[in-house]
Amino acid sequence: MKQIIARPAISILSMAVVLVVLELGTRLFFFQPLGLEGIPFMFRSSSVPDVVYEFVPQSSCEYRYGPPGPFRPPLVVPVRINGYGLRGAEITVEKRVDTVRIVAIGDSYTMGIGVREEDTYIEALGRDLRRTAPAGTNVETINAGVPGYNMVQEISWFQHRGVALNPDILIWGININDALIRMTFEVNLQGMLTSADATGTNPLVLMKPAGSRNLQDIILRHSHLARFVFKRKTNYLLAPPMKQYDFEALTPYVNKLVQTARGAGIQILALIMPILQKNALTQTDIREYFLHQCRLHDIPVIDILPLIDFDSITDYHVHPCDSHPDPATHRLFADVLSRNLKWRGNRLLVIKH
Predict the structure, then answer these.
(1) Residue 202 confidence (pLDDT) above 50
(2) pLDDT band at 5 (very low <50, low <70, confident <90, very high)
(3) What is the Cα–Cα distance from 196 to 159, expressed in whole angstroms?
(4) Which helix (H) or strand (E) holds 129?
(5) What is the 3-class SS of 193-228, one letter each residue?
(6) Which of 84, 320, 329, 346 could anchor a disulfide with 325, C-beta 3.0 to 4.6 Å?
């Protein structure tokens, strides 16, 4: 009787030992990193026309990634949202007379998913300019980037809220996927950001909460061996489902941006950032559209694409499971922006190269 019981027990124990050894071996030699462990609910519906959703003012959270490699700690990035609903320190609408104010509009590349506030390109640019500013001149940078925003949302926000900040310079942070304008976003009752499909039904949750709800998620989250076997990396930042470009519909918004900024005496400097994936090289029509619009409106423009080595594209990523730009790439953006700005007395001018 004891032998009958012992044999299955030995088999189970042997199998458990084998699984433990395989798990340890996978973690050491075939590390399977985890992406974002969930994106906190920081959004609410927006009353600004065409903007749809916005950050919840005076909120804070942490973006948590799994360890990017063996023997490395998880990546934890704090995020604070000020009373104006933007990432960063508190600001006042009224600008001081001794201040040069720069506002950057854009999406998650500008907002800085995965990087600390001080490492975003707009903050790095601010530090550079403060070091070279004339005595008695203050430089203030404002990060108006919001994850998931497209060009329509960015420009509409600037028209209705950004211009009220009276910036001297507008950094127009253009990501190639900002041309995706046929997307229907909303914030559901649980505070999650969703996007409907082409029929307006079957909402896809774009920003999922942390935590697991079924056995499969629990196993995949905690086992490198399971992720290796299933060839699955868990990343909770999902791409919008409706990838439709409509340049004809986008052009009036570009015209509005130029009219609004120049009507208020605001200089514009465009920064075109490619999606940091190899397929970005195929998106030449979108890139050419934005370059053409900048030439048409005589907007100084910086094209980042020629500066990126796409054979080593993962070197620019904030995390193995997230292709957003890392701090060094934000530093690159800040460097090229600095070279297109020049002090003339206590005025900061956008220059062309």
Answers:
(1) no
(2) low
(3) 26
(4) helix 121-132
(5) EEEECCCCCCCEECECCCCCCCHHHHHHHHCHHHHH
(6) 329
pLDDT of residue 285: 82
- pLDDT, one tens digit per residue, over 103-133 is 999 999 999 999 999 999 999 999 999 999 9
Residue 339, CA distances (Å) to 7, 9, 217 in order: 74, 70, 47
Residue with tokens 């203030």: 140
Residue 290 pLDDT: 93
Burial (Cβ within 10 Å: 0-12, 13-18, ≥19) of residue 40: middle
Q: What are the residues whose beta carbons fall under 8 Å from the beta carbon of 113, sequence distance 6 or more?
A: 63, 147, 237, 318, 322, 324
Beta-bridge partner residues of 322: 319
Q: Is 344 helix (H, G, I), strand (E, B) or coil?
A: strand
Q: Which residues contact 275 (CB under 8 A, 6 or more apart)?
A: 175, 176, 177, 283, 323
SS (H, E, C) 49-117: CCCCEEECCCCEEEEEECCCCCCCCCEEEEEEECCCCCECCCCCCCCCCCEEEEEEEECHHHHCCCCCH
Secondary structure element (H or E) that encloses residue 342, with its range = strand 341-344
The distance from CA 75 to its chain's CA centroid, rounded to whole angstroms, is: 16
pTM of the model: 0.83
User: In this structure, are residues 39 and 32 in contact, taking their beta carbons and an 8 Å threshold?
Assistant: no
Domain ranges for the chain, please list them: 43-199+240-350
Q: Say which DSSP state 35 is in.
A: -
The pLDDT tens digits of the residues spanning 51-75 come to: 888 998 999 888 888 777 777 788 8
Cβ(32)–Cβ(224) under 8 Å?
A: yes
DSSP 306: G
CATH class of 43-199+240-350: alpha beta
Q: β-strand 267-273 against 169-175: which pairing, if any?
A: parallel
The answer to whether the CB of 26 falls within 8 A of the CB of 228 is yes
Q: Note the helical H segments in 158-298.
A: 215-222, 224-230, 247-263, 284-296
Q: How far is CA 153 from CA 133, 158, 178, 241, in A?
A: 32, 9, 9, 17
- CB-based contact 302:270 (threshold 8 Å): yes
How many CA atoms lie within 13 Å of 48's alpha carbon, on the beta-carbon side?
A: 18
